[in-house]
Write a structure and sequence with these properties.
single chain; mainly beta; six-stranded antiparallel sheet; two-stranded antiparallel sheet; 2 helices; globular
């Protein structure tokens, strides 16, 4: 019993010392709460929260319409990810909901994406999150849509 307690204690010390928790290896830049929390004196990591309120850094895709995922950004390529804003390009895939949203078809529109308005992330106050999404259609746009669309982000 004492040997088992010593082994368990040694494992906890090893895990704490190495920063490993479950042996998984996350790719550099992958977003999860443990990699995005800023340390005192370090430059804070900037995140955008997805529909599940999980932090993302430079995501390659992003769901805008959380309820049914009928509106999402794909093929995102970020040129800027900084404290003023994050800027990228990609495609907005939007369900045309014809004849219904369940039977609709995705339509794609080229967009420039701007994330802005940094605010404190309530779950991790030392980690700023983007609060506003701006889409600028660079070609065809959805019927009735303006050239620019602004929406709040989950938070």
């Amino acid at each position: 019993m004492i040997v088992r307690q010593c082994l368990v204690t040694a494992m906890f010390v090893l895990v704490a010392a190495t920063g490993c928790s479950n042996g998984s290896h996350q790719p550099a830049g992958s977003a999860n709460p443990t990699t995005t929390i800023s340390q005192p004196g370090s430059v804070p990591m900037l995140v955008v929260l997805d529909c599940s309120r999980m932090p993302q850094v430079r995501p390659p895709a992003y769901v805008i319409g959380c309820a049914g995922a009928n509106d999402q950004l794909t093929d995102l390529h970020w040129t800027t990810w900084g404290p003023a804003n994050a800027v990228g390009t990609g495609q907005e895939s939007l369900n045309d909901c014809t004849p219904s949203c369940a039977d609709g078809h995705p339509q794609s529109y080229a967009v420039t994406v701007v994330l802005s308005k940094l605010v404190a992330w309530s779950a991790h106050p030392g980690t700023p999150r983007f609060a506003t999404l701006t889409l600028r259609y660079t070609g065809a746009r959805p019927p009735g849509a303006r050239t620019t669309r602004v929406a709040p982000l989950p938070g």
